[in-house]
């Protein structure tokens, strides 16, 4: 018996792509984590209250999740991240995000994703706002900590009496891949 010929790949029959099977890698040390918003782990940063809920040490560097309470006047100037993406989930208050040439208002329940290499900043539209800030990969939490002091209470602290010297801010920012305009 003669073996039938297999038609060559053509416009009607494309060759199947090779499939690479990759064995999944299990990350050692991954454990469930429940962290409460507490004074012991909170910082005051330029008139805001920052509480890390998940750090890079907890997620093996994959991401960090920060609970951030803000007041009008504590916002950072326009900047660009070289290393991480940021995602804000607005829990309370209203913010106006500026991304490149776009102006995007956000309120409770809204999510704003900011990919790295995109110039952005935000302004509070309300006197107070609270957001969850997801950063991937992790590391940006160390930027906030380097410029903060331990929180004395779980409240938004007073604003600094004067604008901080931009030189130390720029020096710390450069260590973490942030570029301020």
UniProtKB/TrEMBL annotation:
Residues 68-132 form the Cupin type-2 domain. InterPro entries: Cupin_2, QDO-like, RmlC-like_jellyroll, RmlC_Cupin_sf. PANTHER family: PUTATIVE (AFU_ORTHOLOGUE AFUA_8G07350)-RELATED. This is Cupin type-2 domain-containing protein. It comes from Hymenobacter edaphi.
């Amino acid at each position: 018996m003669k073996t039938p010929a297999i038609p060559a790949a053509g416009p009607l029959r494309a060759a199947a792509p090779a499939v690479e099977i990759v064995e999944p890698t299990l990350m050692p040390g991954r454990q469930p984590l429940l962290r409460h918003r507490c004074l012991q782990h909170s910082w005051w940063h330029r008139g805001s209250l920052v509480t890390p809920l998940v750090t890079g040490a907890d997620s093996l560097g994959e991401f960090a999740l920060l609970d951030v309470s803000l007041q009008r006047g504590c916002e950072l100037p326009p900047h660009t991240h070289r290393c991480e993406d940021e995602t804000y989930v607005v829990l309370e208050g209203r913010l106006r995000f500026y991304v490149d040439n776009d102006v995007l208002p956000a309120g409770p329940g809204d999510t704003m994703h900011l990919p790295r290499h995109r110039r952005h900043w935000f302004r509070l539209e309300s006197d107070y706002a609270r957001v969850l800030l997801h950063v991937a990969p992790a590391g940006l939490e160390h930027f906030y900590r380097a410029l903060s002091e331990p929180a004395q209470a779980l409240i938004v602290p007073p604003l600094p009496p004067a604008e901080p010297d931009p030189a130390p801010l720029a020096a710390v920012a450069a260590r973490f891949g942030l570029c301020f305009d």
